[in-house]
Specification:
With about 200 residues, the chain is mainly alpha-helical. It has six helices and two strands; from the N terminus they run αββααααα. α3 packs parallel to α6. It is flat, with a radius of gyration of 25 Å. The protein starts with 8 loop residues before the first helix and ends with a helix.
Amino acid sequence: MARGCEGGGFEKLWSRAPRLVFREEGVMSRRNRRGGSGTSWAGVVIGWLAALGAVLVLSSVVGVVAGAIFATLGFGGGAEAGATSLVGILVTLFLAFLIGGYTAGRMASRQGARHGLMVALLALVVTLALALLGSVAGSGLVDGLQGVALPGIPSEVVSQGLGTVLTLGGVLALLLPFVGGAIGGSWGESTGRQRT
């Protein structure tokens, strides 16, 4: 007998080999023996890139549409322009991460909501890393700007509740990419299964 086949060696070797597992839909996927995460990192990265591209395309389109809607409703300039911009940014973030989550969920064809959430998490991590890098690189510039006087915030703006609007806008800007990514990922998962 061949070496390794004696004493049930072949069965032991065969039991350690990765298996092809058939899902209910008839799609084959390779399972990790350790019970791996099942995360399609390529799908997450491509979903993130799709979300970035969608932000670039949608930002001008949604800004124009939101401005036209607010102008039709009678909101002109000043404080209303800030609200229009905030609504445009929030809608853009939601739609962009809906597209990014859809892309990740469709590429993975499984656990779409999770992949959509991973797209938004990757975007948040990259944004924080770039902000940290910018603060470290920009700390040397602060010394050179010591003689520059920056204007302060007028007291009447603070009394109008700008802090509340900015806080609410910031919280929504953090949450909407995750919501859009989860919805888009679930949608992409269901259409990804149908393509096979």
